[in-house]
Q: What sequence folds into this?
């Protein structure tokens, strides 16, 4: 037999008092988890789309020149960690993202260079073939096809494409599909050279040990202190994972701040609300506690009973809220957000970390209110029904 | 033995002071049913609360077996109440989300729970509540509820049972049932019953009369 004063006895026998509170917590956990993971998904989206920056770095000439100046290239050649430096022609195709259409780079390279780069990112051809020299053809990885909702043989870029720098004077067809999580698109150097005469050529380099890439990048052009590196920011720009993320996070910083304020406010409000609720529940339960105190149950034990009731309720509600959020967000991520080019991690630990203050705040609020009330509890006035 | 010495109690309100007890000294000899009688407002309840440590007197001292309980800490006093005292109030004050059996067992230490279930059931049948252990208070009559409260007072095997108007909310029949259970307990324990109903104290060994906060005299009543 369970002890009559066990917190479980109270919780299971008083659903009409326990469930509303539990429901509010579940909803709040979902709200915070959803807001936090959606906010974080922009970061994740950038990391997903530009994941190739983990494998190679682009060096792009500044506007005035058609290719990376020789002195800058010489600096790259002096870095001992660098494995290969490849000059590539580029053009852009549109991809859909949450912030709208974005241009995604297609690299024009020789077959040998292409094989080298694809091997680096461990992408293998699963359908079709590699682009032929000089033909308007590309090979792309699966995520890009999914994003554009295209299949083998479809046109991925053409003269009628909307928006900025993306597009091609001739329709470009997808002739091969690569199996890879990494977003990558490649064409032939001969095609890009003859078609995109005005687009500057860029350099891309790899390191012998892939994990050295960050170190070399930082040496060449440090994040946040562009002028302090070996390369000259007046002549070239580098596209690295670190500066991409820094830029995104910088541009999103006010949104993150707003999110922090929203979740802090929500948590404060619900903690306050539940503090008030536990105060009301306590008032309703004064006769119970007064009689128990008269029978000789110590304040400490009564306090423990209430604290455990609150802890168990909030922890269970938090767990239910989290599980519910994982399910709902997984569904939304797969069925709503992915099509819109937003990558949402339904199990983002950072998002769930943001929901932890909910049970903690509620428990602390309940403990403080109940402690104050218990200290003033007068058993005699309960018994005398004053 | 429980005894009190020169107990005074003043209720201080904003504009006036009520002298509820004016120097009450009493010894409650063991193995007896003690009745405390007196008109309304004479200080009976106040005295009872002071005797069991729920209230502190303005002056005077309560001692249990020679040890003063008046200046005990809250926690020590709670321990004393749960280990040595039993209580029956005018209202049963059962917890409505617990069954009759569970209500009887609320004050039991968790480690003694399984040992006490049997005892609670025999108390139920002793009080004529056979088979009512799993009923909730809302399904019991007022008299049945009060008898559950009596079982709750007795389950811990208390040396002293305090009862404040335990029969006031009951009809005569139920009142006698409760009183006879308390009288049985008084055979080898101390029972102190406050009431203004002389009928209910027919079985009392000693009756103390309070009037206006003063003890009038000890009249030994008809001994059983
Ligand atoms: N909390 C209080 N504040 C002020 N005065 C009080 C308080 N409690 C009791 N009194 C007064 O103290 C006196 C004694 O009260 P007490 O409750 O002990 O009487 P009683 O003998 O139990 O009466 P009854 O038979 O009506 O229950 C009364 O005059 C009452 O008005
Ligand atoms: Mg009274």
A:
């Amino acid at each position: 037999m369970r002890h009559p004063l066990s917190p479980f006895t109270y919780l299971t026998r008083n659903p009409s008092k326990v469930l509303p509170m539990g429901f509010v917590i579940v909803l709040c956990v979902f709200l915070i988890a959803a807001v936090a993971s959606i906010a974080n998904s922009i970061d994740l989206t950038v990391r997903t789309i530009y994941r190739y920056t983990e494998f190679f770095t682009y060096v792009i000439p500044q506007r005035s020149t058609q290719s990376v100046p020789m002195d800058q290239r010489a600096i790259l050649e002096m870095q001992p960690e660098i494995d290969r430096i490849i000059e590539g022609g580029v053009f852009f195709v549109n991809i859909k993202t949450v912030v709208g259409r974005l241009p995604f780079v297609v690299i024009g390279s020789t077959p040998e260079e292409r094989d080298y780069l694809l091997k680096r990112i461990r992408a293998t051809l699963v359908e079709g073939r590699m682009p032929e020299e000089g033909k308007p053809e590309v090979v792309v990885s699966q995520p890009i096809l999914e994003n554009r909702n295209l299949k083998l043989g479809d046109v991925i870029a053409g003269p009628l494409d909307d928006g900025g720098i993306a597009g091609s004077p001739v329709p470009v067809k997808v002739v091969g599909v690569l199996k890879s999580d990494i977003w990558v698109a490649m064409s032939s150097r001969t095609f890009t050279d003859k078609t995109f005469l005005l687009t500057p050529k860029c350099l891309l380099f790899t390191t012998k040990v892939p994990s050295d890439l960050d170190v070399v990048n930082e040496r060449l052009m440090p994040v946040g202190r562009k002028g302090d590196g070996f390369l000259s920011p007046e002549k070239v720009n580098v596209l690295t994972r670190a500066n991409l993320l820094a830029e995104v996070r910088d541009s999103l910083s006010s949104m993150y701040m707003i999110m922090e304020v929203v979740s802090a406010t929500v948590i404060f409000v619900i903690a306050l609300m539940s503090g008030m609720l536990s105060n009301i529940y306590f008032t309703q339960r004064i006769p119970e506690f007064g009689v128990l105190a008269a029978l000789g149950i110590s304040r400490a034990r009564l306090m423990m009973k209430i604290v455990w009731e609150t802890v168990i309720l909030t922890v269970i509600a938090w767990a239910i809220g989290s599980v519910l959020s994982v399910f709902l967000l997984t569904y939304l991520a797969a069925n709503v957000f992915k099509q819109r080019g937003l990558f949402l991690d339904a199990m983002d630990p950072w998002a769930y970390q943001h929901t932890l203050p909910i049970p903690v705040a509620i428990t602390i609020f309940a403990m403080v209110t109940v402690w104050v009330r218990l200290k003033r509890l007068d058993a005699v006035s309960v018994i005398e029904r004053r | 033995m429980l005894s009190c010495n020169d107990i005074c109690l003043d209720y201080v309100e904003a504009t006036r002071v009520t002298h509820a007890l004016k120097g009450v000294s009493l010894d409650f000899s063991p193995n007896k049913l003690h009745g405390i009688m007196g008109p309304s407002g004479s200080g009976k309840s106040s005295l009872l609360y002071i005797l069991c440590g729920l209230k502190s007197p303005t002056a005077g001292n309560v001692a249990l077996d020679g040890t003063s309980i008046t200046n005990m800490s809250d926690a020590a006093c709670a321990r004393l109440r749960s280990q040595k005292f039993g209580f029956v109030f005018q209202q049963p004050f059962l917890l409505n989300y617990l069954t009759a059996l569970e209500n009887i067992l609320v004050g039991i230490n968790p480690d003694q729970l399984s040992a006490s279930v049997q005892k609670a059931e025999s108390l139920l049948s002793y009080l004529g509540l056979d088979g009512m252990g799993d009923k909730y208070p809302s399904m019991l009559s007022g008299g049945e509820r009060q008898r559950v409260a009596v079982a709750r007072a007795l389950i811990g095997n208390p040396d002293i049972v305090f009862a404040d108007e335990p029969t006031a909310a009951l009809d005569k029949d139920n009142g006698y049932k409760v009183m006879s259970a308390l009288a049985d307990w008084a055979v080898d324990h101390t029972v102190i019953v406050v009431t203004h109903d002389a009928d209910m104290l027919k079985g009392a060994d000693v009756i103390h009369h309070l009037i206006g906060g003063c003890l009038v005299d000890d009249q030994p009543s008809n001994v059983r």
Notes: The radius of gyration of chain B is 17 Å. The pocket of adenosine-5'-triphosphate (ligand 1) is lined by residues B 11, 13, 18, 20, 38, 40-46, 196 (CB under 6 Å). Chain B has one domain: 2-219.
